[in-house]
Amino acid sequence: MATKKGKVLIVDDNAGIRRALEILLPLHFAEVKTIPSPATLVGSLEQFQPDVVLLDMNFNTSINTGNEGLYWAAEIKKMVPEVEVVLFTAYADIALAVEGMKRGAFDFIVKPWDNDKLIEVLTAARDKARKAKGQTTSVETTASPMYWGSSPAMLSIRKTVDKIAPTDATVLITGENGTGKDVLAREIHAHSLRSGKQMVAVDAGAITETLFESELFGHVKGAFTDAHTDHVGKFEQADGGTLFLDEIGNIPLHLQAKLLRVLQNRSVVRVGGSQAIPVNIRLICATNMNLEQLVREGRFREDLYYRINTVHIALPPLRERKEDIVPLAELFLERYAEKYHRPLTGIDPEAAEILQEQAWNGNIRELQNRIEKAVILSDGKELSEKDIQRDAGSQSAAPRGLLHDDTEEERLVREAMQRSNGNISAAAKLLGVSRPTLYAKLKKYGL
Prior knowledge:
The protein is of the alpha/beta class. Helices cover 45% and strands 14% of the residues.
């Protein structure tokens, strides 16, 4: 047998589970330690110095939200980024485990577990942790690259971007939510003469009215009650680079006048100050709203509209560029297969057909989220029709586990009944459906 390597820390409030793992895991890892709750987790991390933490999602039998597990998973990654976290979850909490992976967990294991699968996941997590130890880790900051695709609309936009990117022309990007307006803004900045400086992005619609001027223009110490120090606003932060104002259509009318004044003067006066500070920026704005309609309704200043609309680029929704859906999905598959350590090599024809048929009201963002979840939950070498349908079902109004695929649905119902030892209420809770719905499914499949 190969030399056992690695330390695994188990955090689970179930004594039976801890005992079972104390027997199994020492056969494969050098050291194994168990604790019943996160109360002693910080001390255990410092003293035991594990490579992997196997972390239960719930520690309170009366409150099974999984939030405690998500919280501690994030805390572990903050305290010791090189330590990998594997989430230990019940069947009904898979969606929470997926969220945990998005927050930095390595993988998840569903109870009751398969021993081989558990060892495989913990071994992969250990290997990654041991490789990372001693190396500086940092938060992933690489932005998604622009995917132009082959649709006529996007090829036309690409030609426009090639022409305007090297200039300082102000750009207004419009399009539905999820079409990639922020990605296009970064693309324009990356190919501009200002690419050596930063692009400062601001969600203008998310800034409260009381903080609008302070956030954009800055403030001086003592300007208001909580102004304990001078604050540099977004305009000054973007000096020499690009300022990206997202959701500009949500700015209240009275604040639009203040924004217009700064754009006209190309200088800011900090709140509480009197000195005009010159700012040299390239401005890119974005919105999912019809600004021309807002101007007609008197809800958006006409002079500001013309100031930000030197070049207008309208991004098409994904449903109008169907030839790009599968190639985009393949790009997301490659990215998330690497991120989540899944041996996926492609998308099978049936799954690709389903992707093509979807409405994608959430556009590229929805497609990306769908592929990410499908990658996490897939067990095969290719994304299948089942993977795509399973994830589609979880995002719809239908209860989890009730799918269009009868074979898969019957399997889920059988599995829930087995795990609950025939208890109808418990099985219904696992599936996220009502008792009458489960009765109907049992009758349908003769169970």
